[in-house]
Amino acid sequence: MSAITRDEVAHLARLSRLALADEELDHFAAQLDVIIGAVARVAEVAADDIPPSSHALPLTNVYRPDEVRPSLTPDQALSGAPAVEDGRFRVPRILGEEA
C-alpha cells in the first residue's frame, strides 16, 4: 500500500474546508497513513467464513412476560393528583393551543 501524500491531505483539507499550515499537512499525512494501515490490517483478519454479528456474545431477552396484575383503579391513581379533568390528570397548557 502506498503512503498517503501531502497533496492528498491538502485535497482532503480543501474538501473539508479546513485551513492547514504546511507543517500540519506533513503531520496529518503521517497520521492518516498509520490509520489507513491499521484499517488494512483489520480487513486482512476478516474472514469470509465468519458470519457477521452485531454483538460478541449472544443476547437473550431479559424482560419479564407481559401479564395482567392487580393495579390501581383510575380513581385511586387520580386521588393524589393536584388537578383532575374528565378522569385524567390536568396539566398546565404549554403550547398555547386552542381547546
UniProtKB/TrEMBL annotation:
It is an enzyme of class 6 (ligase). The keyword ATP-binding applies. GO terms for molecular function: asparaginyl-tRNA synthase (glutamine-hydrolyzing) activity; ATP binding; glutaminyl-tRNA synthase (glutamine-hydrolyzing) activity; transferase activity. The keyword Protein biosynthesis applies. It catalyses: L-aspartyl-tRNA(Asn) + L-glutamine + ATP + H2O = L-asparaginyl-tRNA(Asn) + L-glutamate + ADP + phosphate + 2 H(+); L-glutamyl-tRNA(Gln) + L-glutamine + ATP + H2O = L-glutaminyl-tRNA(Gln) + L-glutamate + ADP + phosphate + H(+). Keywords: ATP-binding, Ligase, Nucleotide-binding, Protein biosynthesis, Transferase. Pfam families: GatC. One of its GO terms (biological process) is glutaminyl-tRNAGln biosynthesis via transamidation. Its EC number is 6.3.5.-. Heterotrimer of A, B and C subunits. Belongs to the GatC family. Allows the formation of correctly charged Asn-tRNA(Asn) or Gln-tRNA(Gln) through the transamidation of misacylated Asp-tRNA(Asn) or Glu-tRNA(Gln) in organisms which lack either or both of asparaginyl-tRNA or glutaminyl-tRNA synthetases. The reaction takes place in the presence of glutamine and ATP through an activated phospho-Asp-tRNA(Asn) or phospho-Glu-tRNA(Gln). This is Aspartyl/glutamyl-tRNA(Asn/Gln) amidotransferase subunit C. It comes from Streptosporangium minutum.
